[in-house]
Queue: 2 jobs
Job 1
Amino acid sequence: MQRTHKWSALIVAGALLVGVAGTALAATVPGAVYGDAQAQGINKPAEEIKQDLVKAGIVDVKPTDWAAGSLMVSVQAGLLKPDQTGHLNPKGSVSKNEGIAVFAKVLGVAGKTDDDATAAKKAKDAGLVGNTTAPDKDMTRLDVAKLLATALGVVPRPFVTPSTYPFNDFIRVSADDAALLAALYDMGIFKGFEDHTFRPDGVLTKAQIAILIDRILGAQAR
């Protein structure tokens, strides 16, 4: 079981390392090379996406939207669902429980039909996440970093100071989080924005989560 969790963690890391549009996630995982080449949705032609959108009855996503193919992959996999009016709300934020639940389902820790609370509990029971505070609040980049660090068993870098912290917004994180983010940076998993900030409080959207799902499923299918 432990070996399976380690393999799954590398899949998560591989998906995250190639980045989400507008986030700070990037770099490489030793021994693994991931990218968009194997992601089905990212590479699907717009005409096929258009047919998928019509079939699914989704009305607020255009086939030419940057995450349209990945959103359809998530919908077809039962990981994201439009509301009764056909709105998927791709620019909408994702709560902590929703984000954790999606990762749990992608990794096979939870079932596709589990509700968010059940899937999040299974993720906790499997050791993927710890106790989740404010589960209804938006999932942030820092939340994703902590999930990834937990999955990989990252050891925080000791004695991190503003001068040794790899990003320019040291003041925006706690000492413990700075140590964790510095360790992830040392592993080559994260890089900053062009202004060398991490922006820990930036929230993830459904479109960005869909890109991660697409890459994870593509990596699993290889």
Job 2
Amino acid sequence: MTGIWRSTAGEQAVKEQYRAILGHWPVPAEQRIVATGFGDTFVLVSGPAEAPPVVLLHGSAGNAVTWMGDIAALAQRFRVYVVDMIGEPGLSAPTRPGLESGALAAWLAEVWDALGLEKAALVGMSLGGLVSLQFATRYPERLERLGLLCPSGIGRQLIGKVLLALLVRPFGKGGRRKAAELILGAVIEAPDGPARVIADFFALVNKNFKPRMGKMPPLTDAELRRLAMPVLAIVGGRDAMLDSAETKRRLEANAPHAKVLLLPERGHLLIGLTQQIEEFLTAGRAHA
């Protein structure tokens, strides 16, 4: 089967479970479908209509569920737009343009327009961080500030553990678990309840979805120098997918208003950082 799914049945199973989880979203949310030239895009909108806008982008093989642990706090102070990226296992179009083309930045600009956003903050994780960087370097006037969690496109992409993970992945549930440990840097033991539901959901995604493979296009130093807005990047010292030290060095050398927080014991999966994100988004606001 071609496309982003391994089977039609798998696609249906993931989307059915996804919709069930969205039915338990922690705060009131409007579900929107916005049209773009790259296909329909699914967006969850939460928070006061008059509050400052923030757009959240998940990583590869992710969707809005990625932000489920952050949304309750962020929606108290912000109008939050949680976007399912196209070509990923959410409810947006399966369109998957090349990462090097700048098409995803153009797609996000169309989403920006469809949501009526003039200027907003943007927070992107991993692949979503790369798309956020591409958008920020092409449309800097549309960003108030930029948050990045383990962003692709700056530090060198590492392939050793990723290749090993691909070798063990076919060996059933245990192989998929080991692959996640090798790539993400840790296995999260989810207790019973909502955390277990989310962990089981992403295991279902991992079984049925075909993620992007290949090299992430790096940004040049000249492109990084276009980041004139405040930037916070959080990276893991044990990231098996990206060279976090190089990410830190290049951002600090080229982005004039960048702050980089390197967490020595964390891997590629950076969750549970709501406080750091919220502090960055509220810094300097008169009524934060």
